[in-house]
Amino acid sequence: MHLTAPPAPATTLSPSPMRKSAARFRRRAVNPSGPLERILILLVLAAIIGVSAGLLLPQASTTVGKVVGNYTATGSAADTLAGLAVNDNPDASGYDRDSFAFREYDADGNGCDTREDILARDLTEVQLKAGDACTVVSGELADPYTGQTIHFVRGRSTSAAVQIDHVVALENAWQSGARDWDSQTRREFANDPYNLLAVDGPSNSEKGSSSAAYWLPTNSAYRCDYVARQIGVKDKYQLTVTSAERDAMLAVLHTCPGQAVPQQ
């Protein structure tokens, strides 16, 4: 009798750790469905959507604002703005601040420098230099741009705390029509008290030559008066506005129905 030994059970070899890693890598390569891949895809999509929104939202916001009436206003400031010519291709080439002769023309004929005239007009508690009817040595400014009170003291390191701002900046005026003026009109414009305010120095520097489309006072309570004065100045000198500037002005005037152009 022959006894046949039972067949040996088949031996199943477990894949080595190296093979396991290779298999996992291949699965990830052909099926980007792991958590890391999904996160990367979402980040890319978010970036694309963000860029698109950044390009489209400002235009969409203005369009929606016009539809719902945020760019409508009443009062003489709004009426005057409606009469200003629009020029969306302003050209600042050739601008030279010196051509306006600021502080080189005595608009009121009182013999005082323009800066001193505006300081004396806009400050309170004004102290003049002894024996000098023009030079302001100290005073208090209720700054319209920040809403803060500034104690002005004349001095090499302190005078700049209060500066004289052209409400319609000289460069803005140049590209809005002043490039075509004669020298006398430019001098009158640059030294016209109607276009000048004593203000916080850093705010004036921050504003630079910006129109209302790019800069407004941080003191929101003064924005209506500020925009109305810009409109008054542009109307007086027949300067143009851009579409963006006009819309920014209307958006401000919408918040103060009946806003009037300030008297000269």
TrEMBL record:
Region span, Disordered: 1-21
Keywords: Membrane, Transmembrane, Transmembrane helix
Source organism superkingdom: Bacteria
Occurrences of domain GmrSD restriction endonucleases C-terminal (ranges): 113-251
Sequence intervals crossing the membrane: 39-57
InterPro entries given in the database record: GmrSD_C (IPR011089)
Compositional bias ranges of the Low complexity kind: 1-17
Name of the protein this chain belongs to: Deoxyribonuclease
Source species of the chain: Bifidobacterium oedipodis
